[in-house]
Structures are given as structure tokens and as C-alpha cells.
From TrEMBL:
Record Pfam families: Acyl_transf_3 (PF01757)
Keyword annotations of the record: Acyltransferase, Membrane, Transferase, Transmembrane, Transmembrane helix
Gene Ontology CC entries for this record: membrane
InterPro entries according to UniProt: Acyl_transf_3_dom, Acyltransferase_3
Annotated transmembrane regions: 41-61, 81-109, 130-149, 176-196, 203-222, 234-264, 285-304, 310-330, 342-362
Protein name: Acyltransferase
This protein's record includes keyword Transmembrane helix: yes
A GO biological process held by the record: lipopolysaccharide biosynthetic process
Domain Acyltransferase: 42-363
Species in which this protein is naturally found: Streptomyces luteolifulvus
Amino acid composition bias (Polar residues), ranges on this chain: 1-10
GO molecular function terms attached to this record: acyltransferase activity, transferring groups other than amino-acyl groups
Annotated spans, Disordered: 1-38
Amino acid sequence: MPSSTVTDRPTQPLRALRPPGRHAAVPASAGQPRPRPRPRLYAIDGIRLVAALMVAVHHFAGTYRVDQPHNLVWDRPVSDIMPSVFHVAAYGWIGVEIFFVISGFVICMSCWGRGPRQFFVSRVIRLYPAYWFAVAFTTAVLVALPGVWDRLRLREVLLNFTMLQTGSGVQNVDGVYWTLWSELRFYLLFLLVVATGLTYRKVVVFCCVWGAAAMLAPVAEFPLLELVANPEGAWYFIAGLALYLMHRFGQDLLLWGILAMAWLMGQRELGIRIDEVEHVSSWRGSVLIFTVFLLAMVAIALGATDRIRWKWLVTAGSLTYPLYLMHYAAGTTVINRLRDTMDARVLVAAVIAGFLVLSWLVHRFVERPVAGVLKRGLEASFARLRNASAAG
């Protein structure tokens, strides 16, 4: 899912810091923990790519939809075609929850020391260029190769370019866009904290207040509270925020408590998703995978992976967002057309490889140049707005 460059930017000069031991937090004179210098987190780029591949394999060979007789993708249950792959791919949907945790971590990291204007610009240039291309690309594929997915009306496709279609009750061009609605609500909530200036205390309070709202929303029967609190995704983002505070300031009992609560609430949400949506994986297996991932993130947060500095992971991380946006509807449509031409396992691998290449092309020739244009334009617009306010 969308994220920023995985680089920590301490708000104080490094020479002013006196790093503690590896796992100890040092309180400032006013009781505020001080940030610690950290290198770029290459390991998160790697986990992000693994999560994207998990989701892609799941959609191609592990969903309840593709395991039905006479399904439009494979024409027969995928568990009959490649049973071993199906039993593994059935758990790939957990990649989405992994994305949410990483998003909480990286958004908090990228916003530290920035104001709301910088936060807004960074989110626009990160989210929209690849998304606009994905909407156009997927629509073109569904027009050219009909029969697997219903094509939306032009007015609905156009609304999809705003990324606000879910809030308007309009279908997504591609079903995977549902996660963007959760991301957008998280960004809007976190913007309130960014506007006041991020501190350890404010982020902790935000986690506690948001967690309480997410806990109360399902029983409150108040639609607006449920919309804002986002109980289905809140605890994953909160876990990411707590992990980043561990990374930046060191561990303490309060942060471990927030992370433990996020795990407990998250395992419940995993079970609900299995019962209501997925229907193909066990709760125990899903919780085990999610727990292993959280432990890996704890290791990253506490510095255990700081020695991993493989440059290719940066490129790998940059492919994940375009890959996630483009693979599902277009990929299953391609499989529908080619399913009788080669071994099913080879076909899945080939389609994923093709989308990885396409994702690199989108990143290189769409995301980067369009993001540059958008950034310059938005910064000029905000400068003009400031000047107009001063003159007025």
C-alpha cells in the first residue's frame, strides 16, 4: 500500500543526541523522550514487497471466488488445479493487514517535523500518479477483454479518479481499492495530530483515543462514529504507530501495552474477516502469520535489522503500490484468457512477473515524473495562497 520513503528524519541535530543503550528510552529534561538516530529501514521495503506478492498470489490462486466450480477465472476450483498452491495462497489476504501496519509506521516517520501542508503534498504526490494510471489501465483491460468483471459506467469510472468513490456510494474500478478508503480516513485523522506538531505524547494519546473510538463504534450504532473510527483497520494502523515510537524513542511498557492491545483486537478482526469475507483460511494459521510479521516489525523497530542495506530493496519497495493497484482485475482477466495455454503454476508466476515489470515502468515513467510536476505545482499554489493571505 501507499507509503513514503523509508528514511528516518530526526527533528533534532544528531550531534545533540546522546543515544542510550540499544533498547532503553532516555527521557528529556521535560519528560519527553528524545529521538535516536537510525539508518534507512531497508527491511521494511522488503516486507512491503512480500506483502504485495502475498496479496497477488491470493487473488490469483487462493480466494473463495476462484475455488468455486465454473468460476470465471479458472473455470474450475483452483484447489483441484493446484492444491498445494491454493492452501498457501489462501492466507495471502493477510498482506493487506501487513500493509496497514507498515502504513502506520511509515506515515508517522515521514510526518515527524513536518506541517500539515507538507503532509498533504506528500500524500497527494505519493497516492495519485500511480492510482490514476491504474484506473485508466484497468478500465482499458476490462473494455478490451470483457467477460470476467463488469465494467463500470463512464460516470463511475470518472469518479474513481478522485479516490473518493466509496464515500459517494460508487463501486471501485478494481476491488482492491477498498483499502485506499481506510488509508484516507487514517490520513485525515492523523492530519489533526500533524497540525499540532508531532510529539511522543501526542501520538500515544492519539493511539489511545482512536483505539477507544474503534472499540466503541461497533456497539454505538452511530454511523458517523463507525465511519471515522474505522474499527476494521484502526488497530493495525495503531500497531504501526506504536512500533514507530519504539523505533524512534525506544521501548517502554506503555508502547508494549498499546502493541499488545492492537494484537488482541487485530486477531479478532482477522477472525471476522475469515468468517464474513475470505472463507478459505483458518483463524489459527492467520493469527500465526500476523504474529510472526509483528515480531519482525518489532525487530526492525528495535534495530535488529539495521545491518540490512541491500540497495535493490529500495527498488522492490517502489514496485509494491503500482503492483497492488493493477494486479487484481486485469491479472485475473489475463488468466482467464491464457488458462488453457500452460501449466497453472507457471501462468500465475508469469502474470505476477509481468505485473512486476509493468509496476517498474509505471514507477519510472509515471509516478516519478508526475509526482515532480504535482509537487512543484502544489508548492507554488500554497506559496501563492500564503502571499495572498499576507497581502489581504
